[in-house]
Amino acid sequence: MWLYRPFGIALACLACSAPSFQADSADSGGSSGGTGGGKTDSGAVGGVGGAAGNSGAAGTEASVCADTQCEDVRCANIPLITHPWQGPLRVLAPGQTDCPSTYPDRVAEVGTLDVPQGTCPKCSCSAGAKVTCAKPNIDVYSSTDCSGSPLGSKSSAPACVFFSFSGSGPQSFGYKKPAPGGSCDSSDDGQTPNIPSAGLGGVRALCRGVAGTGVGTCALAGSEPVCVASPLLDTCPQGYPKKATYSQGPVSDPRGCSPCGCGPVQGSCDGTVVVRHYSTTCAAGGASATDSKGGCSGPQTGSFTQYFSLHTAPKPKAECTPTGGVVTGTPTAAQTWTVCCTS
User: Fold this and answer.
1) Residues 152, 154, 156, 161: what is their CA dihedral angle, to the nearest 10 degrees?
2) What pLDDT band is residue 240 in, cutting at 50, 70 and 90?
3) pLDDT tens-place string over residues 39-63
4) Which of 167, 170, 266, 313 sits 20 to 30 Å CA-CA off 300?
5) What DSSP assignment string belongs to 318-342?
6) Cα atoms in the Cβ-side hemisphere of radius 13 Å centred on 23
7) In whole angstroms, what is the distance from residue 320 CA to residue 292 CA?
8) How many CB atoms lie within 10 A of CB 291?
């Protein structure tokens, strides 16, 4: 009586001796298989990949364990594999992309994303004629030390500033240092950007065998761990605790160098500033000159009706922080695989 096992590799005879047969495409192992089916002796099943000794039909090693009963001596029970996980898999060593006959289905070629460091031109800024100091406002106080609120504040931009307040007595005047304004000129050192293309390193194959379905899932037994993989999930399923992540090409690398620029002007407006005040007009002569670097000039005496002029404007002492000249962008792989193994 002959029985046919759908995922097996041999025909089994329960009441007679089965004839031996020659595989159509046997590997370089033994020349012929022994008695097929069952577990009665070590020659009853073909060796893995047509190994030396007795062998069955070549190419059937991957499907011999597609049986929930897991009866073959080459098979072992493995944890349940459910969609969308693919398996059972073997992860080959780096550089190996040809799947063995025991795990013949190459699911993907994967590796680790390799992003070489790039260099960009060095940026710099110069504070030239575009950096300026505005003319300060002149403030007049009724106090002798510029304390309190000013009685008046006027821009020193006109050639002559007139103040007229009622009363007389001690007084003071001063100005606040203006902040530098304008902008700096940017430049680079002329170097050509050097950004090597990103790619995959340690490329290897994910190779799939054939497994049954349900709780009794089987796979070829061996010393290597059994794995499952998915491009959709990130958390490993039960029974496959060891996790690794791989990338699948092609790799897109949009990196480039950001353009050079300059940040805001920073610093101060320094230098001696001469403010002259007059009792009548800003005409030459009869003027009381006051040197100041910003702050207060006092006490002054005389009428509150006075004229002021800015004789020397403050000078900028400023700089800008360079911007740009750095690598921007992030390389990405076409697909990311989560691989989970039994150990």
Assistant:
1) -80
2) very high
3) 333 333 333 333 333 333 334 565 6
4) 313
5) EEEEEE--SEE---EEEEEEEEEE-
6) 26
7) 27
8) 11
